[in-house]
Amino acid sequence: MEGGGLFAARQKNLLEFLSLLRDLRVLEVSGFADAADRVHLNLMSKAKRPGESLDLIYTAKQRKIKETVRDFAEAEISHESEDEVLSKGLLQKMSRLNLFGLQLPEEYGGAALDTVCAAICVEELSRVSASAGLCVSVHNSVSAYPILAYGTEDQKRKFLPDLASGKSIGAFCLTEPNAGSDPSSIESRAVRDVNGDFVVNGQKAYVTNGGIAGTCLIFAKTGDDSRSGMSVVIAEWGAKGFTRGALEDMCGMRGNPVCSLFFSDVVIPAGNLLGKEGGGFRVAMTALDAGRIGIGAQGVGIAQAALDAALKYSNERVQFGKPLSAQQTVQNYLAEMAVNIEAARMLVFRAASLKDAGKPFTKEAAMAKYFATKTAMESTTTAVQIHGAYGYSRGFLVERYFRDAKVTEIYEGANEIQRLVIARSLLEELGRTRL
Ligand SMILES: Cc1cc2nc3c(=O)[nH]c(=O)nc-3n(C[C@H](O)[C@H](O)[C@H](O)COP(=O)(O)OP(=O)(O)OC[C@H]3O[C@@H](n4cnc5c(N)ncnc54)[C@H](O)[C@@H]3O)c2cc1C
Predict the structure, then answer these.
(1) Cα→Cα distances 266→89, 193, 338, 400, Å
(2) What is the whole-number distance in angstroms between the Cα of residue 336 and the centre of ligand 1?
(3) How far, CA to CA in Å, does 264 sit from each of 21, 200, 229, 243, 282?
(4) Which of 80, 236, 409, 412 is catalytic?
(5) Model-level pTM?
């Protein structure tokens, strides 16, 4: 009860705090001229241009957001069963905290936070429930954000308020049974009918939030097999011919309703084309760059949960007459985890800061995603090891962290693909310096 009271107080504080952020933003905005500078100034001191240097100490605002989301997750999500975490009731509570409108402008009902603060929210949710963190990350960064970045004003007014309030959950639908790492090989097709509307046929696989999504970005071929033959349309749940498959029975991330979506002659209005016809590949890549910051934050959250559990357990479990934590080997494990987690968090914040500053961040987002999710996998494996047989048993949370961590190395671009992205960027930079 006490925890609930504390949470209620913090929740109220967050709402007051978010309105303070808005006021601050208005004040700070006035000093800068171009559009990129007007975005997300609230985290930076007035003396600096955003993104020029990263504030390596949490500001009071960031700490407040961190504590509020942590308290929320611990009070409202930690007791939920793994498979049922995203109940309607919980989604409503998440919506009250504005977790579905993290970076959307206030005019659409969003919290207008910057990417660093959004990453903090995803990290803290994922520390308690990777499935809830995944829901929020995908909804905000690869569903709502592309509409904000590429949508017409009509599309923004039509879709963003419901996304911000969580009335409609977002999904990003690129993967197909025969197209994963190579999205240009998708087979779904969107063909114009006599009215100019799109008739969509195809299947999308492994769609995060698929079982509850109302607003789905569907990538489909509208032209030839080149990248410029791909477009993205916004499909709304309820359209005739739009159906869902059974929920995937996955190793981890079991609380997220991941499933296939099927399109059989689904008519999607011409006005739901997002960006230019033939511009779908570019939209997908822009969205994934942003999404990788969120998945990096998710990796940090899972890894932090594993470290917290390992610290506690190793201090309590006695073998050979002393706690495990008194053994130097175990201390080495704990230290290694802590260093990697902190480094991963800094990579996430750096990529987020660059995005907020309107600077290129593709390489940095790939680095953050790669290192943070690798850290999640390594830290959860170590945490299981420190727990011994108990750690390998259902009922001990580290076992779930271990299963949840694995997929972070696979989705939003498997880590092999992240390394390709990083290496390609390095080689391009080298080419530029030689010119
Ligand atoms: C829980 C979950 C949620 C997901 N959510 C979504 C979602 O919301 N939307 C969506 O569109 N997709 C989603 N996906 C799909 C995910 O993005 C893909 O699984 C991912 O892109 C990898 O594709 P694939 O599984 O087909 O693997 P493949 O592409 O078949 O790759 C298999 C392996 O080969 C490696 N590989 C492939 N190509 C290369 C290469 N050129 N060089 C080196 N190695 C390579 C990969 O890295 C991987 O290790 C989700 C998947 C899961 C499991």
Answers:
(1) 31, 11, 49, 38
(2) 28
(3) 45, 7, 20, 8, 25
(4) 412
(5) 0.90
- Count CB-CB contacts under 10 A for residue 423: 12
pLDDT in tens, 6-28: 455 555 555 555 554 444 343 33
CA 410 to ligand 1 centroid distance, Å: 5
Average confidence (pLDDT) over 293-298: 98
Question: Which class does domain 2-168 fall in?
Answer: mainly alpha
**Residue ranges per structural domain of the chain:** 2-168, 171-279, 282-434
Beta strands 169-173; 213-221: pairing state: parallel
Of 212, 119, 112, 125, the C-alpha closest to 170 is 212
* CB atoms inside a 10 Å sphere around CB 269: 14
Q: Is 74 a catalytic residue?
A: no
Q: Burial-class residue 139 by CB neighbours within 10 Å (0-12, 13-18, 19+).
A: buried
What pLDDT is stored for residue 80 in this prediction?
79
Mean per-residue pLDDT over the chain, rounded:
90
180 lines ligand 1 (CB under 6 A): yes
Tokens of 271: 């006005």
Our answer on whether the CB atom of 112 is closer than 6 Å to any ligand 1 atom is no
Out of 1.10.10.10, 1.10.3720.10, 1.20.140.10, 1.20.1250.20, the CATH code matching 282-434 is 1.20.140.10
Q: What is the pLDDT of residue 78?
A: 85
Q: What is the CATH number of domain 171-279?
A: 2.40.110.10
